[in-house]
Amino acid sequence: MVLSSNNKIENGDAIPADANPTPVVNHNGTISGSVADILKERSSLHNADHGSARDHERRASVTTFASSAGDTKRYDGVSITTGRSGRSSLSRRSRILVGYCVDDPRTVKGRRIQMTKMVCLAGIPILILIIQSGISVSQALTEQRVSNAFIAQLEFAIQTGYAVHALGLERGTTTFFVAMQEKSLFEPVMKRRLMVDAALKNMTHWPAVKDGTFEFENKQELTLRVLVNRVFVNTSTPEEQLTFFTDTIIAPLLRWVGDAVIKSESQEQRWQDLVAYYTFIIAKEGFAAERSSGTVFYARGNMTKKQYKWYLDKRSQGNAFLNKSMQFNPTIQQILVDKWYTSDLEKNVTLERVRIDENNYVPDLERGNFYYDQMSKFQSVLFDIENTLTKNITNTLNDAVSDSARTVAAQLFVVILACCLFPSIIFFLTHITGQIQTFAAVLQTKNEEIMKEKKRTDAVLNHLLPRQVAEKIKSGQPVYPESYDQVTVFFSDIVQFTDFSASSTPLQVVDTLNKLYTIMDKRIEAYDVYKVETIGDAYLCVSGLPERNGNKHSYEIACMSLDLLKDVSGIRMPHKPDYELRLRIGLNTGPCVAGITGIKMPRYCIFGDTVNTASRMESNGEPLKIHLSTATYDALTFFNIFEMERRGEMNIKGKGLMVTYWLMSKKATKRNLFGPEVKA
């Protein structure tokens, strides 16, 4: 028998009689009596002979029936105290001490019956406890499910609200820009577009769309519609922009939030807060639409009846839903009293509304900017209220979820403890050593697998980035951009590769590029050249970085270029045996900057006018020729082993007139061009 801290029975060992002559089992499975005596007896039993489980049971059971007087005799190797006779006296004393509840533990049948009684004695209270705790867990899980569903609805409502806010800002700036046709207004449009892109990107939830109810099945489709509208914004009218943003984009988003509120299963107070938030963002959207429509008035000086009616509808919508939201949540009114009512901002907005209601004004860009600025400040006040609402709702909901989680955890703990008390202790004690050994073996295997994967990862990283840069990244050191005074940049592409791709299958195109780049990569390994990247059929590499090599960079690139022309000319495609791959190469020498760009799939990139000029040399070159800039020509002239030909002056895009050269060949030489420590 093992007792927990609350004296519960944790296995089926018998209770020593001298621990408590008349032990009483309570309704919750605990034993009333002297706990200290019980623990003392348990300790003495463990310190005795460690025989079989059957011997322990016999010793504990026989001791239960021992009396304080009589002769000491041996029974199956166990010392017991008896009366004047053996079995009959023992049975009588057993019935006197504990009645007929205990059977003879010396027999197999008695031990089985006793074990059954002990199991029932411990199992019935535990079973009742499990049932009660299970009901509590079920109720707590239901509450937690409702809370989690409400959290999802709240997150969706918040994300959608931010998206509506950003779309309203883009609508206002776009409408003002289209109405005024003023270039200075386009910069705010671009800023608002970035806000919209960020808000749409942050929308992690997307509702299930029923057939025929909504046209945007996913976020990509919605984003595409916005992008298409941006492309044709210069040819549209303010009315078209108002209709597009208000009816096509924002209205469905608001319907989503409304559907989420209607389907909410949360408590009354939470549902009321969500309704307040929903009506408030509708009010804010109404005022945002009013602002967009008002800018058209200042651009034209008046509105048509249809436009003025639309403007009044949106303003009325904003006022009506704002009053409704204040009924659901008094916090909104408190904030408006502090920041809006009787403020200079409210007075300015009211005056501008009166001017618009007169519907007779001279187009005025400056006045339009003032109106837009005042309405935007009003929108900022509303946006602060929206943030306050979401913060309050989130805090309340987080507290409820935390309470629910604590309830679930506590009830689950009780259930698990109750379930494990009876069967688990013996099972885990007998198998814990085997489990530990199994876990150690698995852990060792996993560790070996991790080390293998680490080596593979390091190999891949060293292929993607220079070795020095890769080592810094692995060791956690910062990788700063570095400036190089002199490098030589190589650009190449395949002439008429577009036509070749059009007449080949994708698999054939990829196979062709793979053969080409494999040959070029192998050739690069023979030189002090670093491959930067490939884009389609374009190949970019550089010498002189990341490790500086003095004036060797131009020599390395030139020799490699001549070899590549020979290597590539021998490539033949199985599906086009008569087709000859013709490279067009451009070289340039000069300074550049190199560094790591990006976080996801980081790249080691080079920047500078040197790179641009090398690209221009390639694009203005000819097939099977190496086009040099004057800087590269001067660098190669130093070695006096290259045959170069002047091409003449050319008008290079972005550079103007430039004198360029052809690299024809390399003379054979045995002299050391770089000194004893560097081999060319």
Strand content: 5-15%
Estimated structural class: alpha+beta
**Which whole number gives the mean pLDDT?**
75
H/I helix tally: 19
Low-confidence stretches: 1-102, 676-680
Rg from Cα:
43 Å
Number of strands: 12
Word description of this protein:
This protein has 680 residues and is of the alpha+beta class. The protein folds into 4 domains: 17-106, no CATH class; 140-405, no CATH class; 426-464; 479-666, Nucleotide cyclase, GGDEF domain (Alpha-Beta Plaits). It has 19 helices and 12 strands. The protein has helices spanning 35-47, 53-64, 87-98, 108-180, 186-201, 219-231, 238-262, 268-300, 305-328, 330-339, 344-358, 365-421, 424-464, 467-474, 497-502, 506-524, 552-569, 609-619, 630-637, and strands at residues 24-25, 31-32, 71-75, 78-82, 482-494, 530-535, 538-543, 583-597, 603-607, 625-628, 642-652, 656-666. A hairpin with a 5-residue loop joins strand 8 and strand 9 (603-607).
Summary?
With 680 residues, the chain is of the alpha+beta class. The chain has helices spanning 35-47, 53-64, 87-98, 108-180, 186-201, 219-231, 238-262, 268-300, 305-328, 330-339, 344-358, 365-421, 424-464, 467-474, 497-502, 506-524, 552-569, 609-619, 630-637, and strands at 24-25, 31-32, 71-75, 78-82, 482-494, 530-535, 538-543, 583-597, 603-607, 625-628, 642-652, 656-666.
Note the topology.
Blueprint lengths: L23 E2 L5 E2 L2 H13 L5 H12 L6 E5 L2 E5 L4 H12 L9 H73 L5 H16 L17 H13 L6 H25 L5 H33 L4 H24 L1 H10 L4 H15 L6 H57 L2 H41 L2 H8 L7 E13 L2 H6 L3 H19 L5 E6 L2 E6 L8 H18 L13 E15 L5 E5 L1 H11 L5 E4 L1 H8 L4 E11 L3 E11 L14
Parallel strand pairs: 8-10
Antiparallel strand pairs: 1-2, 3-4, 5-7, 5-8, 6-7, 8-9, 10-12, 11-12
